[in-house]
Amino acid sequence: MNTRTRMSAIVAILGLAGSLALATASADESRTTGSAAQVALTEVARAQNPTAGAAGPQDTVWIAERAGTVRVLGDDGLGEPVLDISDETTTDGERGLLGLAFDEQFAHLYVSYTDLEGTSTVDEFTVQDGAVRENTRRTVLTQEQPESNHNGGAIAFGPDGHLYIALGDGGGGGDPQGNGQKLDTLLGKLLRIDPQGGDPYAIPEDNPFAGDPDARGEIWSYGLRNPWRFSFDAASGDLFIGDVGQSDWEEIDWAPASSPGGENYGWSQMEGTHPFRGGTEPANHVPPVHEYDRTGLGCSVTGGYVYRGGAIPGLAGQYVYSDYCDGTLRTLEIEDGRVTGEHDLGVNGGEVVSFAQDGDGELYVLAIGGTVSRVDPA
Ligand SMILES: [Ca+2]
How far is the CA of 171 from the centre of ligand 1 (A)? Predict the structure, then answer.
């Protein structure tokens, strides 16, 4: 199987192919300052279609597998499943177990998945002594999905202690319902809720649309197409969102930790910095801090993390990301919301679908084909 055929097969497996066109070519780096950090990828485990990972209790890393299992990374790879919801999800389209997160004290585990009807679901479990208590399960939030693609699915706690949930525009291609710009739907949004503050959750009073009768109070920011992966800088608290493009532009969105929320990232009036299908740029459009086209660097951005580990000093403070179709690890240097440097780390993680960050700030690269690799110094 040649590379292109193999890539096409893999894209079909994840179901991203509908809106994607694979491209081969090389593109010049437009801005490169200094030299890239010297890194190597060390395979630390094999997983069954890993989709997400999170730092867990007692310095562990927990890995979510697409079909519905969660396993803990140990010295000899992944252990036996510590949670199994495989009879409650499917892997058609872009569905499956798509995200997991712990709260700050590792008191609760949250999982994000599509249920048997394709409905995006976030469930909560109590964690005691490092173990999931399955009889404590509670559904926190659900959102029906009109199509099987663009589910988003990433979840993470922010530095403010609230749970952020990324939801795609509902799918179908081109945002046919215009959900990205509608404030009366959770689709095409990044949400912010307090899962412990109410039943099933509370809306923080300082959310940008809390109390607005014409908007959903859960919305933190909007105008997103498929915010597949997002993260907070563990040092600064700044927010980074990798928003997968429709057909031309992959983008990374950014907001400072001091943001009051309400950012409009433009979709589906805009794709990156470009009007989409005759769209008009919203007056409050927050353009991406970085975008790239489909002429060589890939076709589906995979958002990562700002590196805050100690093993690779040359990588400190850089935002590490990749692309599902390209697999190359790349970094951005960002100052005050502006990209001041771009680097190609010269290593390839395969079909990179996700990154994970452990309690020490070290990064892991997850490829849908099954490898879990740690980013090490070369
Ligand atoms: Ca955008």
Answer: 16
